[in-house]
Amino acid sequence: MTGPAARSEADPVAVKLQAVNVTRGERRVVSDFTAAVPAGSVVGLLGPSGCGKSTLLRSIVGVQANVEGEIMVLGHPAGDPRLRTEIGYRSQDLSLYDDLSVWENIDYFSRLLNVDVERGRSLLDTVELTPFKDQRVDRLSGGQMARLALASAMLNHPRLLVLDEPTVGLDPVLRRDLWDLFTTLAGQGTTLLVSSHVMDEAARCEWLLLMRDGRLLANGSPEQLIEATSSRTVEDAFLTLIETEDVVR
After folding, report:
1. CA-to-CA distance for 208 and 246, rounded, in angstroms?
2. Are residues 225 and 167 in the same domain?
3. Predicted pLDDT of residue 102
4. How many distinct structural domains can be found in the chain?
5. CA distance linking residue 36 with residue 22, whole number of Å
6. Regions in the chain scoring below 70 on pLDDT
7. pLDDT at site 223
C-alpha cells in the first residue's frame, strides 16, 4: 500500500516518520514505523487497544522518551521548541483542573499560551459548553470533560491537532458532532491526527494508518484499503490484512 506522498509529489506533508522505533523498558512498543501524514486532512490512526498508538502520538508531539529514527513535524524535528505554538495535543489523560470551573480552566490555559480571551469564549461556544462555563470540572459528565479538553487543545490555533482516542466513551450523537467538527477544522487548513480503536470511525477519515503490534500494517484512503483487500468495510479490510500478514509470517 502506498503512503500519502505517493498521491502527489506536490502534496504538503505535516508529519513524516522514518524507521521510528520506541522502547519502553525491555519491550519495543513501536517498530520500524514509516509513514506520512498529509497536511490539511483528517488522518485516522487506527488499531486495537495496546498496539502502540498512544506511544506513537507522544513521539510525534515530542514528549516520549527512547525514540529512535526520524520524526519531522511541520518541517521541524519532533520536540523542537518552535512547535510549541503549532501543535495542539489532547491525550487520553484529559489534563484538566477538577477543582476549577470550565471557564477558569480555559482562562488559565489561555494565559499560559498568551491567547486572547475571546478565543476561549468562541471555543466554548464551538464545543457547546458555554451554558456550563461556571460549573466545576469534577461535576461535568465524561463527554463534557472531553469537549473541554478538546477546546483547550485548540486554543492556540494549532496547525496540527493530535487527538488520542477523543471519542472514547461518548454517546453516538456527540461522536458524530465531534467528527463533524474535525472535518470543519481540516477544511480550514488544520491537520488532524486522530487515534481510535473503533473501526467504524475510519469512514470519517480522509487517510488511514492501520497499526498492529507497534507496526504500520497499511495506509491509504478508506476507499483504497477496501478496494485493495476486496472488502466491504475498513474493519473487514483490517481483518483481511491481519490474516494475510499472519500467513506471510
Report:
1. 21
2. yes
3. 97
4. 2
5. 17
6. 1-11, 246-249
7. 94
* Domain around 142: 95-157
Can you tell me the distance from the alpha carbon of 61 to that of 175, in angstroms, rounded to the nearest whole number? 24
In the DSSP assignment, the letter for residue 145 is H
User: What's the rounded Cα separation, in Å, for the pair 167 and 64?
Assistant: 23
**Nearest CA to 91 among 7, 194, 218, 206?**
194
> Edge-to-edge strands of the sheet including 87-90?
87-90, 160-164, 191-196, 42-46, 207-212, 215-220
Helix (H) or strand (E) holding 234: helix 234-248
Cell 461522536 appears where? Answer: 175
pLDDT score recorded for residue 4: 41
Beta strands in 131-231 (DSSP E): 160-164, 191-196, 207-212, 215-220
pLDDT digits (tens, 9 = 90+) for 166-178: 887 778 888 888 8
Say how many residues make up the chain: 249
Residue 97 confidence (pLDDT): 95
Q: How far apart are CA 35 and CA 207, in angstroms?
A: 11
233 DSSP assignment: S
Final residue of a structural domain among 136, 157, 178: 157
pLDDT the model gives residue 167 = 84
